């Protein structure tokens, strides 16, 4: 949950390496590559300290959303040039039909526009706290 990395590439790798999602990863390197390839198409640094990298990949078996936060900030080439403190990675199997990742992105983006929601995430101290906050989405 607390991100140690200082670059977007390392942050993506760090969050994909979290123990909680390992049972759902079928090919870690493919998953990392697919998310980084999507990032090359255009920044997922939305501004106001938020990044939502995402991608479809054969490296994951089920749709997953991974959350991390950084106290120091991460250089992300964000739209507003600011460092990122909140990161959500949306991972969806490539074979998954439809626009699941876009629906998740829309829901998260809508909530992240609310200052109170962002502050609660930044103040969360445990995985359970984050789950509780996300249940409101």
From TrEMBL:
Domain PTS EIIA type-2: 1-137
InterPro entries: PTrfase/Anion_transptr, PTS_EIIA_type-2_dom, PTS_IIA_fruc, PTS_SugarTrans_NitroReg
Subcellular location per the Swiss-Prot or TrEMBL entry: Cytoplasm
A Pfam family matched in the record: PTS_EIIA_2
Chief location category: cytoplasm
One BP term from GO: phosphoenolpyruvate-dependent sugar phosphotransferase system
GO cellular component, one term: membrane
Tree of life domain: Bacteria
Gene Ontology terms for molecular function: protein-N(PI)-phosphohistidine-sugar phosphotransferase activity
Keywords: Phosphoprotein, Phosphotransferase system, Sugar transport, Transferase, Transport
Protein name: PTS system fructose-specific IIA component
Species in which this protein is naturally found: Tetragenococcus muriaticus PMC-11-5
